[in-house]
Amino acid sequence: ACAFAGLWNCVTINPLNIAAGVWMMLNAFVLFLCEAPFCCQFIEFANAVSARAERLRAWQKAAFYCGMAVFPVLLSLTLTTLFGNAIAFATGVLYGLSALGKKGDAISYARIHQQQKQMDEEKLTGSLEGQA
Where is the signal peptide (predicted)? Predict the structure, then answer.
C-alpha cells in the first residue's frame, strides 16, 4: 500500500508530493527488507539487513517505523500519504505495544495492592507508636 500510494503521489508537478512519494516507496522497500526478506531473496544484502533488524529491540523498531511513516505526512499532508503510511505506522504501533509487555492479570495486581496497603498501614502504626 505504501509503495503504490508513493507511486501515485509521484504523479504530480508539486515537488513536495514527489519527495513524499519517493520517501514512501523507500519506506515500502525498507519494510520489505526488514519484515519480509523472502520477498527480496534476489537482493544480496537483504539477509544482512533483515538480521540486523531482528537484533533491534521492539521499542527501537517502533520508533524507526513510526518515524519513517510520519516524515512523508509532514512533507505533504494528503489523503494519499495518510492512507499509504497508515500500515507502516501501524507496524510501528504494534512493535511499541509489544515493547510495553504483556498485560498482567487482576489477581497479581490485587496482591500487589494488598501488600502495599499492608506496608502503608505498618508504616502508619509505626510512626504513631514512635510519637507516643
Answer: none
